[in-house]
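anyone seen this seq b4? input:
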Amino acid sequence: MLSDRRQRVLAALIEEYVLHALPVGSRTLAEHYQLGVSPATVRNELSILEDAGYITQPHTSAGRVPTDSGYRSFVDDLLVSEISDSRAAEAGDEAITQLRQSATELDGLLEQTTAALSRLTDCLSIVLPPSTLSLHIRQISFISMTPYRVLIVIVAEDGQVLNRQVDFGNEVSCDELGQAQNLLNQVLAGKSFTDMRIQMDGDMVTALSSPLVRTMMGEVFACLQGGDSSHAHRIGLSTLVQQPEFRHSQSLIPVLQMLEDDTVLLRLLQDVDASEGTMVRIGHENGSEQLAGVSVVASQYGRGDGDGIIAVIGPTRMNYAQAIKAVRLARNALQDE
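predicted toks r here
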């Protein structure tokens, strides 16, 4: 546990390093930050912080840079303080309103939220939609395209829209489709795929007595399962490339290969827990040597199982305060959707 003074010196060093991506000397800190101590005391505190592993000196004559442990101490202090003030709250409320008003569908809101995150943080921003298997159905529509083909359209309560085409071997009339649609809406509206698999109640069993309804219910299940690819909305890879840490391709290519893979992203973000608020994983905490140079700030949004995930990924030298604020803002924008 660092003393208040050492925490202030560490925070100042991190702030300076985030701004300029250059090792920071004691003179810079003493001249540009109101630390309330002499330059000699600053040098002494930096020496103690280095011995404790919070900062390191890349070269003998250079200043110091933060280590993963230094960032962790700094971030933990941020998370405890909740980094919120009235001005940030007002700006956040306005931004949330603008996002919701400008997006007519959930997919558009996810895309705009991802773009806003990237603009606010200068990092790669990712929004994973909730699992379609946990979405609750608002309405099911069967649209006859020909006597042998129907389009299934499922509207979820959070605004997501899924669709699937079905071909029949025999002619199916619009009246038959309408009856099946009405019956399945009666028994499936308000339920999720998980609910349906667990709660095969009397109404569902009665509905399944019709071969057409049984077929269409199976196609509804397939539509929900087919939509559960958890496709990530991501914006900002070009911004990540421009960061000083990734100017050399040998350090950038492994990072890009991993971050472009949705499977890797899901594994990277699988530990995000709604009960813990905002998660910050720094450098080597990611558990992969390829990702040792990046940090992840992430949070869940939604209510219940299958929640979506919002994340910002950037160099360990990211602006953590801004990234945490941006992720919380995005979470608030999507929370009620």
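Strands lie at 55-56, 65-66, 124-128, 137-146, 149-156, 161-167, 233-235, 279-282, 294-301, 308-315. Residues 83-91 have pLDDT under 50 and may be disordered. kinda curious what u guys think
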